[in-house]
Amino acid sequence: VTALTQQVADAKKKAEEEAEVAAALEEQRKKLSKDMESLHRQLDELKQANDKLDKSKKKIQEELEDTNIELKAQQAKVQELEKKQKNFDKVVAEERAVAERNAGERDAAERDARDKETRLLSLTRELDSAAERIEELERSKRLLQSELDELVNSQGTADKSVHELEKAKRALESQLAELKAQNEEIEDDLQLTEDAKLRLEVNMQAMRAQFERDLQAKEEAGEEKRRGIVKQLRELESELEEERKQRAAAVAARKKLEAELKDNEQALHLNNKLKEDAIKQAKKAAAQLKEAVREAEEARSGKEEAVALAREAERRVKALEAEALQHAEELAAAERARRHAEAERDDRDDELTAAAAKGTLLIDEKKRLEARIAALEEDLDEEQSNNEIINDRLRKSQNQIDQLTMELGTEKAATQKLESSKLVLERQNKELKAKLTELETAGRAKTKGVITSLELKVSNLEEQLEAESRERLAQQKASRKLDKKMKELALQLDEERRHADQYKEQIEKMNARVKALKRAVDEAEEEVQREKVGKRKAQRELEDLLETHETLARECSNLRNKLRPTMSDDSE
Questions:
Q1: Does residue 454 contact residue 190 with C-beta atoms inside 8 Å?
Q2: Cα dihedral sign for 178, 182, 185, 187?
Q3: DSSP structural state of residue 316
Q4: Dihedrals φ, ψ of 156, to 5°?
Q5: Where is the composition biased (Basic and acidic residues) (predicted)?
Q6: CA 205, CA 211: separation in Å to the nearest integer?
Q7: Contacts 24+ apart (CB under 8 A), 309-318
């Protein structure tokens, strides 16, 4: 009896110890419940973060649509600029053809004028020679007349010189006949000279009229061309201003996207931190569960010893029945704890599923960001092509300015030629005036008439020279105006080049920002990979935890099966 009493006391002591173990298990269960509540709160925070990511995704999609619309508008503008460039090239080609045709006509007119000037110089030399011959004949005539007078006066006093007088008379008659012939020749030469001068005057008037028409047409064409260039430059300035505004808007949108990307990175970092905390708590819960399993194993071994003692006492101590009932209640509590652990396992499965879904969302977000970056790179390529088109236009405008400069040089050369022609005509005028002065001393009426005619022609030539001088001054004034406009165009082109350089710098900055975005996306991808690794690790820990749960369940089931025969024996 003493031995049985001692055994009963030992059994009670073990039962008390098992009750303490059950209380400790209850405390661990409550602690696990608190941990599960904390995990639920973290899941709620993760859901809120996912909602924010969804909103940012929608916002980025809207911005992408806006960017596509802007891209289409830019493409339409590029096509319009290409059309304008083609029209401008066509106008330049037509102007170049007209300039070449005018240059050919001007060269032909200059050759004709040089030929006529050569002919005029030849006729002038012939006129000088004829005047010299006239003077020589006049002197001979005066000499013969004086000799004849002397002979007539001396005829009455000296009959012996009749033969000499007759001889002198015949010589004088022959000289007079020769003089008449020479006078007729001179008159013919003068008539030819007058006709040639008349023809030269008509040709000069025709050339002057043609030159005036050509000059007026060329000035009108040049003015029209300058107006067209100024208009196109203004259009290019307005288009460049619009492109600068669009670039500023794109830069603002890029900064906004960078800020959103930074926010997403911060949210991702926070989610990773929360996930790490959840993994730590899961590890802690797994350790606590292992400790509970160990304690349950010890309790199970104690229970087996108590059952053995009860069997040896042959159901003589009714206290063992109470202990058995208590063990049954503890088993029920352990069953409830197992079910609660299974519920917690299901919750953790849901959490892992949500984490996997979040990882998928992050991957999708990364893909969308990569697509966004690709679209931005395409926009940058498009902007660079637009910049190249603008540079081509600037080069073409520079070529046009060079062409206008060459034409201006040609006009200056033509002006210099006209100046030299004026000097030649003035020199010829002076020579003609000198010849007229010499012819005035001749004393012949016919010669005086010719001289008068020549004076009139010289006066006409002087008037023509004055008119040409006025035209030359007007042309020089137009050339100065053209030089001024060319300088203004050069300044505008320099300004456009500076804008193009600034645009290139902005493109380089955008490229650097895109590279930074790529690096950020790569870092985000690395974070996603690390999160996947953590997820797999948590999955393995969860599997270990499930295995532990299953082991505990099997042990509880075995313990229950072992206790059932004892309960049935006690009832008997």
A1: no
A2: negative
A3: -
A4: -70, -25
A5: 333-346
A6: 10
A7: 309/7, 309/8, 309/10, 309/11, 310/11, 310/566, 310/570, 311/566, 311/569, 312/7, 313/4, 313/7, 313/8, 315/569, 315/570, 316/4, 317/4, 317/8
Sequence-distant (≥ 6) Cβ neighbours of residue 528 within 8 angstroms: 359, 362, 363, 366
Token pair 């966004």 is at which residue? 372
> Using CA atoms, how far apart are residues 485 and 237, in angstroms rounded to an integer?
17
d(C-alpha 22, C-alpha 298), whole Å: 12
Question: Is the CA virtual torsion 396, 401, 406, 410 positive or negative?
Answer: positive
Nearest to 278 by CA among 45, 50, 52, 49: 45
- The identity of residue 419, as a single letter, is E
How many Cβ atoms sit within 10 Å of the Cβ of residue 330? 21
Instruction: Look at 69 and 254; give whichever has higher pLDDT.
Output: 69
Kindly give, in sequence order, each residue whose CB lies less than 8 Å from that of residue 91, ignoring residues fewer than 6 positions away.
225, 228
**Average pLDDT score over the chain:** 63
**Dist CA 269 CA 442 (whole Å):** 120
pLDDT band at 105; cut points 50, 70, 90: confident
Alpha-carbon distances of 117 from 121, 291, 347, 420, 456, rounded to whole Å: 6, 127, 115, 12, 19
d(CA 12, CA 297): 19
Nearest-Å Rg of the Cα atoms of the chain is 61
Residue 571 half-sphere exposure toward CB, CA atoms < 13 A: 7
C-alpha separations of 29 from 23, 32, 91, 297, 456 in Å: 10, 5, 92, 17, 136
Distances (CA, A) of 298 to 325, 454, 555: 19, 150, 11
Give the DSSP H/E element, type plus range, for residue 156.
Answer: none
- The pair of structure tokens assigned to 15 is 């039962």
pLDDT at 213 over 70: yes
More confident residue, 221 or 365: 221
What is the C-alpha separation between 306 and 239, in angstroms, rounded?
Answer: 98
| Percent over 90 (pLDDT), the chain | 0
Nearby residues of 538 by Cβ (< 8 Å), 6 or more positions away: 278, 279, 282, 352, 355
92, 517, 10, 17: which is closest to 310 by C-alpha? 10
Two tokens at 362? 């992050």
User: Which amino acid is located at 336 in the chain?
Assistant: R
Here the tokens at position 321 are: 């029945």
